[in-house]
Task: structure prediction
Amino acid sequence: MMTGSRHGGMRKSFFLLACCLWVWGCGGEILLPPLSAPLRPREDVSIENYKFRVAVMDFTDQTGQAGDLIKTIPDILTTVVFKSGRLDLYEREPLRGLSARDAGETIQGLIEKRMIDGVISGSVTRFSRTEKTIVMELRLLSRNKAVMYADEHPLSFKGRREMEITRDDVVSLGEAISKAVPRVPDMKIVSKNATQVSLSGGTNKGLVTGMTGYVQAYLDKVNDPETGEIPKPTPVIVGEIVIDQVSDDTAIGRILIGDDVLVNDLVRFK
Result:
C-alpha cells in the first residue's frame, strides 16, 4: 500500500511539474482556446469601374464622302451615351487619330487592365448628298468579343459644304446602345470549376452574353465573445467576371480577377 501511494504521489508531482513548465514556456500566461473561431479573411480585389465602361473608337467612312461628319458623330455619341446614365465612358482623347493597328493594341491593353468592358465602333456604308442622309453601321462588342449590339442607323444632316449631323438621330442611336446593356438583378454563384462559374439566372433575368460583374462576399456572422452581439456582415469585393454563355435559367461566367471567389458569393452586374 505504501509503494502504491508513493508511486501515485510521484505521478502527481510529475504532472504538476509538466504543467508548470508549459505555463513557463508560454511566458507565464495560460493560453486558452478562443471562445469562437476567427473569421477566415477574404482576399479583396480592386475594381476599375462599377458601371459598364465603353470606349468609342474613331469611325470609318467606306464611302469617302462623309467629310468631317465621320469625326463629329463619335464625339456626339460619346456625350449622348454618357448622359444616359447607364454606361460609363472611357476618355475619347487618347483614341483619336490612331491607326487601325495602334487602335487595336490600345484597346487590347485597356481590356487586359480591365479598364473597359466594351468597344463601340461605327462605319458609314452609304451616303446621299441629295437626300442628305447617311447610313451608319454600329456595333458594341464586349471585352470577350460578344456582339451586344449591331444594327444600321440612318442619320440625316444639313448643309452642303459644312455638313452638320442631326443631333436627335444620334440621340436615338445612343439610346439603342444603352439598352443593349440591360440592368439585371444580383445573382448567386451556384458552382465553380477553376476559373469558370455558373450563375443562378440567365435570359429569364435579362442577362446577356458579354456583361461583366463584380463578385461580392459577406463575412460570416459570429457572436462577439465580449458583448454577445452579432455584428452586421461586412461586404468585400473578391473578384470580377465576364459572362461567356447564357441559357434560359443559368449562365456561365469566367473569372477575370480574384482567387477567392466561392460558391454562394453574389455577382452584382455593372
Observations:
- The CA atoms of residues 20 and 28 lie 9 Å apart.
- The two ends are 82 Å apart (CA to CA).
- The chain has two domains: 53-179, 187-269.
